[in-house]
């Protein structure tokens, strides 16, 4: 099924067609993933160029986290799919330790303070604690955490926890960052603040980011490109380039171009949501 | 149950399982196989390594000794079971009751709870004479010791469970105009139930300890008596016999409580 | 702030009040009903007896605590070791866990005849008994703790390239700590009681032995004095581990 | 007598059912107590239970308690109990060593490891040593455990045994004739044990009950000795897991202990005033009791003496 | 401080001014609420007309739930405030059992199945179980729960749980319904579905609803009127009438009128959010 498109919502590229940029950092082709009798992903294609900020939206249970788990090296896709990273074909397991992954919840360790949580990945890599801490301390102000380095997670607000988790991900300096709904647990207002702040940080470090969200406003506000996924089995239904100027201002969300993009995406998502709503509602377990 | 949830989530595995045989039967067979295997290892090890019967007799010797005087073991088993059950039931009920009272009346809790704690640091066996003095050589006396060991964990966990009740849920019930009694029955006790069952499982083991120790204060029937008798006549085979009977009773009772728990607090099993 | 300070002290006062009321009832019953010492000695007599026999009781408490603490330490090591082994090699689980549950459902006192026969009447049998009683509790609580780990946190660690051991050390062990320490706290009282019970069945010394001897010498004041000391020792041990627990688990 | 007129009473033993108490079980099984108008319950003992205590408080009517030593101790502490009969007329304990071991005479106990029960047997040992001029701290005296295995394994030089119980176990686990024993009587010491006791109130208010109990018990014991196998059957009906051979041995030995000394002439449960006095003086000397005990009040021979001699003799 | 307003965003009424409808169902005047040293509400005024759907937005911690607790009868306001319900002045406690309250989370009882959860309030009222169940069973299809009556909460998706909670609230038939962020825990797509469905149900039963949300789109899409609260201590900063036609279509969220309303509200909220963001971040505990 095709997305219903309003006239001229910007350049739209069909999913099977590869993105035209020259040397993608990550490339997925014909990726399938089956869990027992559940087909989570089927024939998924996507690519991410270096320095790009790609957002992914799709109905609940469509396989977004599964996609991330594959790219993070945690799950192997079914045989037959092609996975290329930094120009070389590889197995998912080869990616373990090569992309920096931030899961759906912050997953801070309650027994580690802010700094020690932030340097977790560095420690696993084998860096000396002192060295890692020094590195993290320098970064704190940028993450709005200056003065909080000795605090423990249970002393932080949801927004701050999320920033610590993001800092942990940033400190694990890898070519590709995977962010799985980092702001999903935040209330709408805090969320807006965090989005603006993330763009500031990204602007500065220019990492390549693949970002999952449920929120269409968020997907447009942050991304260079939005991938809309189909209902399960998941594949890419629509790739929407977001040609809004950067740096993006908060006011942009009520600008006509933004609203037009939102309309396009909403229509595509609507169709998929409707498909999966009735079935997913019966099956998806809470928490 | 054929909920869409159940079928779709575990669909693959359930299907694979159902090809062989129903679940409880499979479990039972696996259990029996495990027991037979353990028995063979026991018997074999004693023969193979020539372990002195003084340390570990052959299983067959023990079973034959038990078969020689089956009434002693059957009567002992039933008697100890009765003591255990009475102690467990009364301890459980008292534990829940005090838990609720302590939850409701803070002053009482602060006055009495520390005494409860201290009471649990006293080895019962030390005042066995008092128990006989006060309650004689009755089944009741043993049950009371089982009770003494049982009630405290239940009190603690009931209290803990009641305290985990979400104040928002209480507010919801009150917004419906619920009375204190309705609050307790509809919300607070069900919320505490999983915690209470954790304590009950522990209490199942403890009540058996109480019954056995209680039988050391002068009695003629019971697994504790058999154990003591065997210990002081240096009859290792009889010690093992009594131990096996106690193991059967302990494991069985624990399994029953655990099964009851799975049935009654079905909702927390998923977590 | 002031209320927060006042609340625990009120609780403390009530606790003291409860203890005093109990002691008063006891004293009143013993004196008022002229109960002889072999039925129930008065609290005051017990305290006097406790003071006059303080060296004997103190030595006995030391003896018992030595057994209890050694057994406790050993039991903790065994329990934690087995749990970690199971965590590292899940295949062990099916072998160890059913066995442990079966052994654990038999009352520890059931094993005392065998342990006394095997390990003699000295301290070693007490240590073994305590270690047995403690290790199962610790194994089960440690395992429950290790299993409580969030799968997603494990995935996160793996995505950082952490090994099995790295995940265990940095994630699973700290996650297991709260349940482990709760198990350790509960086990303290148990370890002292098991030591005393085993001493009563045969020993060279210790509070259980003192109680046993005192009963035969018809010295019930001493029986009760020893019980008081045993209770105080258990409470001290319990309090210490509880304190340690709160210190270690600062984040809960 | 019709059931309605039966008087309820209980007998507290010093330990679990075994042939050591066969006569009482036989009397109960054959209805001798009922015939005397007593509805008797036999309550076994256990670790950490003290017969004197339970009888003094009225929890039990009759008691078969530790021995003369524990009766003295109880009276010394003011427990209102009276001894109405003594079962074992001579010391039931012996001290056992290996024939080929280093201990040849009691002088050789010095420096050796000796285990004993601190429940009365220790006094016998101290007494024997004292007669030989040895102080207890010259040897390593240790509490004896449930098991005689440390002795069998050679970890202990001298072990304490009762004739009827541990001595049997030792003999069954070591070659015959490899053992040497030291007997208290050879050193001029006798500690009569297994005393029958009642509360002072019972003795005063229900002398007929006491006499009836003694009559029935004596009948039971006479039957037990004339039909040992039947007596062991009766005991084992209550405690079926016991070892029959050991129980038969025990009954033989118990018969010897119960009919030794003055009992040979005066019959079972005879209270030998001389032996009691000797033991009393000994305990006083060694501080086991704090002050002299009024022996006349503590040992009341009138009940046993009221029974015709023929009924007392086995 | 006043809200920054774009030209002509629709009729705006200042907070202190009472809403002009004749006989309000609920009226609050000069309501204060202090917890120890924390002033949660200060001088709050508001009124709700019968049959009205009023939505409330405001920064986290501004006292929205406190306001609801007062109206539900669970908290007494500080003395001096005026509380009128159905035209009569009353204490908060008098309202216990007289408004139907749905708290922030679904708070379903895991040991009760769908029907038994739904009839909780009826049972508390003293209705016979069978009768209550019969009543609930008739309502199930409307709430999209037909066939699920025997399921337990842990077998339901988040959206379904929320509908069970709503059904429980509907079955407790009272003049006023208080919904405290009923969709806060749902993902954005499920949330959209639930909003549409709620409007359908409301259209049919025409209950008076007071509805808290963090999401401005949601507030506009659902409400007849939006109350914007100030940062703590909370009071009403702005009352915005939403004059969009009903029944509201999903497409409305990208319509120019909608976007204009959103702009007005966002500006007002932004100001308050900014005020409370830096302070709340340091103080608010996670979870
Ligand atoms: N390990 C697994 N075993 C079996 N099924 C799985 C597993 N992991 C995921 N699934 C199934 O695969 C499908 C896709 O799951 P996934 O978590 O990737 O969805 P998602 O798009 O991230 O959903 P959400 O938006 O709710 O996070 C779901 O139906 C899920 O139940
Ligand atoms: N019982 C209480 N005791 C002390 N302080 C309280 C209490 N209830 C609420 N507060 C405080 O009052 C303020 C308002 O809380 P409230 O829960 O009403 O905010 P809210 O607007 O509902 O926030 P959110 O959007 O996060 O749900 C907060 O600072 C909170 O900490
Ligand atoms: C007279 C006499 N004294 C001690 C023992 C052996 N023993 C040592 S401790 C103990 C248990 C409690 O007293 C037993 C039976 C015996 N057999 N007979
Ligand atoms: Mg996901
Ligand atoms: Mg709130």
From TrEMBL, chains A, E:
**InterPro entries reported in the protein's UniProt record:** AAA+_ATPase (IPR003593), ABC_transporter-like_ATP-bd (IPR003439), ABC_transporter_ATP-bind (IPR050166), P-loop_NTPase (IPR027417)
Q: Per the database entry, which stretches of residues form a coiled coil?
A: none
Write down the PROSITE patterns for this protein, in alphabetical order.
ABC_TRANSPORTER_2
Q: Which Gene3D superfamilies match?
A: P-loop containing nucleotide triphosphate hydrolases (3.40.50.300)
* Coiled coil in keyword set: no
Instruction: Kindly state which keywords UniProt assigns to this record, in alphabetical order.
Output: ATP-binding, Nucleotide-binding, Transport
Domain annotation ABC transporter: ranges:
26-256
Instruction: Establish whether keyword Nucleotide-binding is in the entry.
Output: yes
GO molecular function, a single term: ATP binding
What is the role of the protein in this entry? Involved in beta-(1-->2)glucan export. Transmembrane domains (TMD) form a pore in the inner membrane and the ATP-binding domain (NBD) is responsible for energy generation.
Q: Which family does it belong to?
A: Belongs to the ABC transporter superfamily.
The name this protein goes by in its record: ABC transporter ATP-binding protein
Automatic annotation (TrEMBL), chain B:
- Signal sequence span is none
**Localization:** Cell membrane
> Which residue windows are transmembrane per the record?
28-48, 85-105, 112-135, 141-162, 237-260
Which SUPFAM superfamilies does the protein's record reference? MetI-like (SSF161098)
Q: For the ABC transmembrane type-1 domain, which residue ranges apply?
A: 77-261
Which InterPro entries does this UniProt record tie to the protein?
A: MetI-like (IPR000515), MetI-like_sf (IPR035906)
Q: Which UniProt keywords apply?
A: Cell membrane, Membrane, Transmembrane, Transmembrane helix, Transport
**Topology with regard to the membrane?**
Multi-pass membrane protein
Note the superkingdom of the native organism.
Answer: Bacteria
Main subcellular localisation: membrane
Identify its protein family.
Answer: Belongs to the binding-protein-dependent transport system permease family.
Q: What is this protein called?
A: ABC transporter permease
Q: Which organism is it from?
A: Bradyrhizobium campsiandrae
TrEMBL record, chain C:
Would you say which domain of life the source belongs to? Bacteria
> Which key words tag this protein in UniProt?
Cell membrane, Membrane, Transmembrane, Transmembrane helix, Transport
- Give the main localization category: membrane
User: Which InterPro entries does this entry report, sorted A to Z?
Assistant: MetI-like (IPR000515), MetI-like_sf (IPR035906)
Question: Is Acyltransferase there in the keyword field?
Answer: no
Location(s), subcellular: Cell membrane
Q: How does it sit in the membrane?
A: Multi-pass membrane protein
Q: Where is the ABC transmembrane type-1 domain?
A: 61-245
PROSITE patterns, sorted: ABC_TM1, PROKAR_LIPOPROTEIN
Xref: Gene3D superfamilies: MetI-like
What residue intervals traverse the membrane?
Answer: 68-89, 96-121, 127-146, 192-212, 224-244
Q: Which PANTHER family match?
A: ABC TRANSPORTER PERMEASE PROTEIN HI_0355-RELATED (PTHR30151:SF20), ALKANE SULFONATE ABC TRANSPORTER-RELATED, MEMBRANE SUBUNIT (PTHR30151)
Q: Which family does it belong to?
A: Belongs to the binding-protein-dependent transport system permease family.
Name this polypeptide is given:
ABC transporter permease
What organism does the UniProt record list as the source?
Answer: Bradyrhizobium campsiandrae
């Amino acid at each position: 099924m095709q997305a219903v498109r309003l006239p001229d919502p910007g350049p739209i590229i069909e999913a099977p067609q590869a993105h035209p940029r020259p040397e993608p950092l990550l490339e997925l082709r014909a990726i399938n993933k089956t869990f027992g009798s559940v087909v989570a992903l089927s024939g998924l294609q996507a690519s991410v160029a270096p320095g790009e900020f790609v957002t992914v939206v799709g109905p609940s249970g469509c396989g977004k986290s599964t996609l991330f788990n594959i790219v993070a090296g945690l799950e192997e896709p079914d045989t037959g799919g092609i996975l290329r990273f930094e120009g070389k074909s590889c197995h998912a397991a080869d990616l373990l330790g090569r992309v920096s992954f931030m899961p759906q919840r912050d997953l801070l360790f309650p027994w580690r303070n802010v700094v020690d949580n932030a340097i977790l990945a560095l420690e696993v890599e084998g860096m000396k604690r002192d060295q890692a801490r020094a590195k993290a301390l320098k970064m704190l102000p940028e993450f709005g955490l200056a003065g909080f380095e000795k605090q423990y997670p249970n002393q932080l607000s949801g927004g701050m926890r999320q920033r610590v988790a993001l800092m942990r991900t940033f400190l694990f300096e890898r070519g590709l960052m995977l962010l799985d709904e980092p702001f999903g647990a935040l209330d709408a207002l805090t969320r807006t603040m965090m989005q603006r702040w993330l763009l500031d940080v990204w602007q500065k470090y220019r990492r390549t980011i693949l970002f999952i969200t449920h929120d269409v406003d968020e997907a447009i506000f942050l991304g260079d490109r939005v991938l809309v996924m189909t209902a399960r089995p998941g594949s890419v239904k629509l790739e929407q380039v977001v040609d809004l100027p950067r740096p993006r201002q908060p006011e942009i969300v009520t600008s006509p171009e933004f609203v037009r993009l939102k309309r396009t995406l909403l229509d595509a998502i609507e169709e998929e949501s409707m498909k999966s709503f009735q079935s997913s509602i019966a099956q998806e377990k809470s928490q | 149950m054929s909920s869409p949830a159940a079928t779709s989530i575990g669909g693959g595995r359930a299907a694979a399982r159902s090809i062989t045989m129903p679940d409880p039967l499979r479990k039972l067979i696996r259990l029996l196989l495990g027991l037979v295997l353990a028995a063979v290892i026991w018997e074999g090890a004693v023969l193979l390594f020539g372990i002195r019967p003084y340390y570990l007799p052959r299983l067959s010797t023990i079973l034959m000794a038990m078969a020689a005087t089956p009434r002693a073991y059957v009567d002992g088993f039933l008697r100890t079971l009765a003591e255990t059950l009475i102690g467990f039931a009364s301890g459980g009920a008292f534990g829940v009751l005090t838990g609720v009272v302590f939850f409701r009346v803070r002053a009482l809790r602060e006055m009495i709870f520390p005494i409860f704690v201290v009471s649990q640091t006293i080895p019962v066996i030390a005042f066995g004479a008092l128990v006989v003095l006060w309650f004689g050589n009755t089944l009741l006396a043993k049950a009371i010791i089982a009770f003494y060991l049982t009630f405290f964990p239940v009190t603690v966990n009931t209290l803990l469970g009641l305290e985990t009740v979400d104040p928002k849920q209480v507010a919801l019930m009150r917004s419906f105009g619920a009375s204190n009694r309705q609050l307790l029955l509809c919300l607070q006790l069900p919320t505490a139930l999983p915690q209470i069952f954790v304590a009950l499982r522990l209490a199942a083991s403890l009540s058996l300890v109480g019954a056995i120790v209680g039988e050391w204060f002068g009695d003629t029937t019971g697994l504790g008596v058999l154990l003591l008798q065997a210990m002081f006549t240096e009859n290792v085979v009889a010690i093992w016999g009594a131990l096996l009977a106690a193991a059967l009773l302990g494991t069985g009772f624990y399994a029953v409580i655990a099964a009851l728990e799975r049935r009654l607090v079905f909702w927390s099993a998923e977590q | 702030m002031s209320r927060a300070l006042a609340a625990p002290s009120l609780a403390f006062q009530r606790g003291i009040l409860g203890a005093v009321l109990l002691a008063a009832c006891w004293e009143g019953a013993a004196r008022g009903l002229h109960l002889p010492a072999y039925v129930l000695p008065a609290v005051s007599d017990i305290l006097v007896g406790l003071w006059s026999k303080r060296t004997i009781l103190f030595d006995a408490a030391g003896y018992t605590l030595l057994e209890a603490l050694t057994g406790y330490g050993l039991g903790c090591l065994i329990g934690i070791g087995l749990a970690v082994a199971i965590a590292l090699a899940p295949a062990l689980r099916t072998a160890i866990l059913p066995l442990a549950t079966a052994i654990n459902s038999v009352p520890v006192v059931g094993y005392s005849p065998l342990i006394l026969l095997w390990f003699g009447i000295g301290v070693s049998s007490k240590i073994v008994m305590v270690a047995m009683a403690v290790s199962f509790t610790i194994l089960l609580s440690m395992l429950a703790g290790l299993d409580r780990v969030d799968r997603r946190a494990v995935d996160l660690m793996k995505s950082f390239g952490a090994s099995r051991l790295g995940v265990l050390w940095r994630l699973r062990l700290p996650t297991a700590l709260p349940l482990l320490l709760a198990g350790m706290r509960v086990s303290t009282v148990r370890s002292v009681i098991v030591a005393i019970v085993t001493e009563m069945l045969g020993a060279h010394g210790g509070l259980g032995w003192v109680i046993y001897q005192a009963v035969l010498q018809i010295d019930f004041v001493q029986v009760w004095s020893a019980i008081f000391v045993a209770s105080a020792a258990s409470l001290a041990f319990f309090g210490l581990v509880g304190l340690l627990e709160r210190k270690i688990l600062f984040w809960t | 007598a019709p059931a309605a007129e039966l008087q309820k009473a209980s007998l507290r033993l010093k330990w679990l059912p075994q042939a050591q108490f066969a006569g009482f079980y036989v009397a109960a099984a054959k209805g001798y107590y009922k015939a005397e108008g007593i509805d008797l319950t036999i309550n076994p003992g256990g670790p950490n239970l003290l017969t004197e205590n339970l009888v003094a408080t009225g929890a039990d009517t009759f008691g078969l308690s530790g021995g003369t030593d524990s009766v003295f101790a109880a009276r010394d502490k003011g427990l209102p109990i009276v001894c109405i009969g003594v079962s074992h007329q001579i010391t039931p304990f012996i001290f056992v060593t290996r024939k080929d071991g280093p201990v040849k005479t009691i002088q050789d106990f010095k420096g050796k490891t000796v285990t004993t029960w601190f429940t009365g047997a220790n006094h016998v040992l101290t007494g024997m040593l004292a007669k030989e001029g040895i102080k207890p701290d010259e040897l390593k005296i240790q509490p004896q455990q449930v098991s005689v295995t440390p002795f069998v394994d050679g970890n202990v030089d001298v072990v304490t045994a009762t004739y009827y119980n541990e001595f049997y176990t030792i003999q069954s686990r070591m070659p015959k004739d490899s053992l040497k024993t030291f007997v208290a009587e050879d050193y001029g010491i006798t500690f009569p044990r297994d005393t029958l006791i009642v509360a002072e109130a019972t003795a005063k208010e229900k002398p007929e009950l006491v006499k009836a109990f003694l009559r029935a018990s004596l009948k039971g014991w006479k039957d037990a000795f004339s039909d040992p196998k039947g007596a062991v059957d009766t005991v084992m009906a209550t405690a079926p897991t016991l070892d029959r051979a050991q129980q038969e041995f025990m009954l033989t030995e118990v018969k010897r202990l119960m009919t030794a000394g003055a009992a040979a002439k005066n019959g079972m449960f005879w209270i030998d005033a001389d032996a009691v006095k000797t033991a009393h003086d000994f305990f006083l000397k060694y501080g086991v009791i704090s002050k002299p005990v009024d022996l006349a009040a503590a040992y009341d021979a009138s009940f046993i003496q009221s029974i015709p001699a023929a009924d007392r003799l086995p």
